[in-house]
Specification:
177 residues; alpha+beta; 2 domains; 3-stranded antiparallel sheet; 6 helices; 14% strand
Length: 177
């Protein structure tokens, strides 16, 4: 027999060559068609749900589709659902954080102790606390430093700038204007 030559063989002969029964072959075909139909039904329902809930994740989709799958006698687990949606590129990607990380507390430099652990202010201007954060702008960000009176919780001083530099001094100076 040449490689290019084709002979028609019966299903029975091919199955026996591969070590399967003819019944197993037809059962496999029927099961494959049933799975394909179920997957199509699931995908249609997912697309229908995602029209209104675009960012709904797979686990919540699976929960939301329980009734639908019970009605259609579909039994699919979480991992198979993830695989099915991944195959059809329907997984929701996690959003990347656009927030710039400005605090790294696990550094090697000296960490100052908390000097006001047991101190409770009883009047204004006994204790000022400060903090620095940043404000996201269109293409950049700016630092905002605040000095707050711990008793009255009023802002005593502030400074907005694009560098951290001497923000504490500028915050205090703005507070005394």
């Amino acid at each position: 027999m040449n490689v290019g030559q084709s002979e028609s063989r019966s299903i029975q002969t091919l199955c026996s060559l591969l070590g399967y029964s003819r019944q197993a072959f037809y059962k496999f075909i029927k099961q494959s068609e049933k799975e394909a139909l179920q997957h199509d039904l699931i995908l249609q329902e997912v697309l229908k749900i995602r029209k209104t809930l675009k960012r709904l994740g797979t686990r919540k989709l699976l929960f939301k589709m329980e009734e639908f799958m019970r009605e259609h006698h579909i039994d699919i687990g979480r991992d198979a659902m993830f695989d099915l949606l991944a195959t059809h590129k329907l997984l929701i990607r996690k959003r990347k954080r656009r927030v710039l990380v400005t605090t790294f507390s696990d550094h090697w430099m000296r960490k100052y102790p908390n000097l006001i652990v047991d101190f409770i202010p009883t009047a204004p201007n006994q204790l000022w606390v400060s903090d620095i954060t940043y404000i996201t702008l269109k293409d950049d960000f700016a630092y905002l430093s605040l000095i707050t009176d711990a008793y009255s919780r009023k802002i005593v001083g502030f400074y907005i700038g694009n560098t951290i530099g001497r923000w504490l001094y500028k915050s205090i100076a703005n507070g005394f204007k």
